[in-house]
Amino acid sequence: MPVLFSTHTQPGYMDPPVLSPGQVVCGPERPDRDYRGLVTSLKTPLGRYDLAQQIERLPAEQRPELVVVRADATRRNRPVNLAGIKARKVLLVGDTHHRRAPIAGLIDYAKSEPFDLVLLDYTRQHAHFFVEAGVRNLHWLPGFAVDPPPPALARRPQKGLIFVGMLEAQHAQRRRMIEALMAAGLKPELFHAFGAQAPQLHAAATVSFNCSLNGDLNQRVIEVPAAGGCLLTDRLAPQAGLEILFEPGRDLELYDGPEELVERARALLADPARAAAIAAAGLARYREAYAPAATQAEFAALLEGRGGRAAHALSREPRAAKPALAEPERLAARLALYQAVQELHRREPALAMLLAGEADPDSAADLVDLPRLRVSVEPGLPAPAQAAIERLILPGQVTVAPAQQRRWDILAASPAWLAAAGGAAFLARACRALALSERPDGAATAMLASAGFTPWRDEPALHLSPELAATLNASDQAR
């Protein structure tokens, strides 16, 4: 079956899975290239471009019967006019865990073109937003877009602790973890490698350390076990699905925070037999469930409408199984809040947030998938709202705490609640960032100004205290 795979990535980096022997890859980073009279890749314009026009450049025998579009929050690859293509059309949703309006932008794109199937691989936790927005035939297919790995090498560790991946400014938490390992004297070796070189490094290490960018199920969660490596990675929220894929303590090892990372890395390095046993179990699990043959068989089943594996069904996630679609304006407000908190979560090591007063159960449930965010509601929250939250989350993901318990990193409240709590003086001592549940009137605007709170330029859903605004501005200037 002729396949066209449209992607924003350059050759050698996150190459698409091979779905057909004669597959054509196109995108803004792909060159025009052919081999023995057949096109292998096409260069397209950056951003929006007419995909039907690009297909006209292909020989008749290579016109696709299946088109897969990989789109992410960079917006570098947004082909349009898919209605003009006589082929089945699949959207593979890339990163939605960072950048500006990542979830809302990809929801808009998914709804703007006639996709027959929409897939998430990295960010299962965001599926419910797509469902609530009315995106149809949505599924989670973990491991689908991982670079096709070579066969696992014989495990002969010649290195101790390694990290393979990016350490740019957006990887704030990852850099903190590297610094913690170095401060503890563990001296991880750092590599920037792709393609065949990365699996070789994982196979040659006693332990491969990983840290997600922002609570996402990144590629190393599959790549390290696939290479026969021992993976030590950060614990994600249950909604992300990591513990559906692999069993902690058997197939991989998890850590919460820098202290536990150092402790577990040191223990594995001191016990290479245990590290080897974890690597062997992870490799066996990968071969059983997430090798290309298994993943592509599941893809084919989804494409044919037969459904995927039961363990991957989004109906297992209560937030993605709500009985009705959200009102568009209310969903937009929830998304704006979530995306703002998600961006602050990317930058900060840990956060505590209080939803005060008549807290919205859906907003509370939205936020629990950020693994370093502690979500609380006030003790006086009505019982129906408490019950609604409990139906959507797992036990312990939302706690009950009075507003006076601490200074909150983020406070979500109405202007009336703030005024009753003490106005500007309360606001100045109560939180570092404020999310207003209603549009501020003149009195509320004056209260914010008196406390020195200003809208965050990048995420206007949050108002920042003077000290937090200064911290974020300094961080932006350093990037």
Helical segment count: 17
| First-last Cα distance | 45 Å
Shape: globular
**If classified by CATH, what would the architecture of the largest domain be?**
3-Layer(aba) Sandwich
Rg, Cα atoms, Å: 23 Å
Mean pLDDT: 94
Summarize the structure.
InterPro entries: YkvP/CgeB_Glyco_trans-like. This protein has helices at residues 51-55, 102-112, 127-132, 172-183, 197-203, 220-226, 242-245, 257-270, 272-289, 292-303, 328-347, 361-367, 383-392, 415-421, 423-430, 442-451, 466-478, and strands at 3-6, 24-27, 33-35, 38-43, 47-50, 66-71, 77-80, 88-93, 117-120, 138-140, 159-164, 189-191, 205-209, 231-234, 253-255, 351-355, 373-377, 398-400, 408-413, 431-436, 454-455, 463-464.
Secondary structure layout:
Blueprint lengths: L2 E4 L17 E4 L5 E3 L2 E6 L3 E4 H5 L10 E6 L5 E4 L7 E6 L8 H11 L4 E4 L6 H6 L5 E3 L18 E6 L7 H12 L5 E3 L5 H7 L1 E5 L10 H7 L4 E4 L7 H4 L7 E3 L1 H14 L1 H18 L2 H12 L24 H20 L3 E5 L5 H7 L5 E5 L5 H10 L5 E3 L7 E6 L1 H7 L1 H8 E6 L5 H10 L2 E2 L7 E2 L1 H13 L1
Parallel strand pairs: 1-2, 1-6, 2-4, 5-7, 6-8, 8-9, 9-10, 11-12, 11-13, 13-14, 14-15, 16-17, 16-19, 17-18, 19-20
Antiparallel strand pairs: 3-4, 20-22, 21-22
Helix pairs in contact: 4-8, 6-9, 11-12, 12-13, 14-15, 15-16
Description of the structure:
The model has no long low-confidence stretch (mean pLDDT 94). The chain is of the alpha/beta class and 479 residues long. The protein is built from 17 helices and 22 strands. The strands form 4 sheets. An 8-stranded mixed sheet has the order 3-4-2-1-6-8-9-10. Helix 4 crosses helix 8 (257-270), helix 6 (220-226) packs across helix 9 (272-289) and helix 12 (361-367) packs parallel to helix 13. The longest helix is centred in the last third of the chain and has 20 residues, at 328-347. It folds into 3 domains: 3-140, Rossmann fold, CATH 3.40.50; 159-293, Rossmann fold (3-Layer(aba) Sandwich); 327-478, Rossmann fold (3-Layer(aba) Sandwich).
